[in-house]
Amino acid sequence: MRRGPRVFVLSIGCLWLAAGGALAAADQPRAQKVDPAQTTLVEDFAYPGAGEILARRGITLVKGDGHLLLVACGQPGLIEVMSTDVPHDTDPDALHYCFKASVPFGDLTLTIPNAYQVKGDDHSVTATVTVQNQTSTVPIDKNTWTGIGISSGPDPATLLRLTAKP
């Protein structure tokens, strides 16, 4: 039995449709199975190594933008904090905490109890403190010490936040 041109064209048309359908199916996104235990990646700005710092220095570094970092004191150009009493501070330079701004701005939420002085660097620094359950923001003088807590009144202060701007 001899097939004519119409059967040939029809056969090629069917192949064309089948190939097009397969290509169209390949272009469709496939449904992915999602593991319900899998969490999304969200930056929480938690301070790296905060647990170790709490154990060794007795202060809590909560979170920040990564531009104010706790460093060893003794170099110029640091933001410095002095405290009268921080339980469990085993550092050789106990009760003295230094922070370096790695760029022209920085923000760090922390807890340093019994803070009484903050020394600014070349930035415009503010310190958020709480004294007798009253929270306030104190501008810190550049490259000199500014009294907070018992250095500016009769009650101790807890340092809650440092912010540096150009």
UniProtKB/TrEMBL annotation:
Signal sequence extent: 1-24
Keywords: Signal
Protein name: Secreted protein
Species of the source: Actinocrispum wychmicini
